[in-house]
Design a protein that fits this description.
Layout: H1 3-8, H2 11-32, H3 41-67
């Protein structure tokens, strides 16, 4: 997911997407014990996307607190 896509999302959308990615990552980790994943880069990319989204949420919080 690109940064401009994350910046365009609302807080609610970001939280839903984070939850979705964390569940997907947990499923992949669970199935990793049975058979290796087809694309091992999915772990790194998912973790990075989650971190970007959490950073964006934090930026929103800081912006709201400075505006108030």
């Amino acid at each position: 997911m690109k940064n401009y896509e994350i910046a365009a999302m609302s807080r609610k959308e970001l939280l839903e997407k984070i939850d979705e990615l964390e569940n997907r990552l947990a499923d992949i980790n669970f199935h990793k014990a049975i058979e290796p994943p087809q694309n091992p880069m999915v772990f790194r990319n998912s973790k990075r996307d989650i971190a970007r989204m959490k950073t964006r949420i934090r930026q929103m919080e800081l912006q709201e607190s400075s505006d108030a």
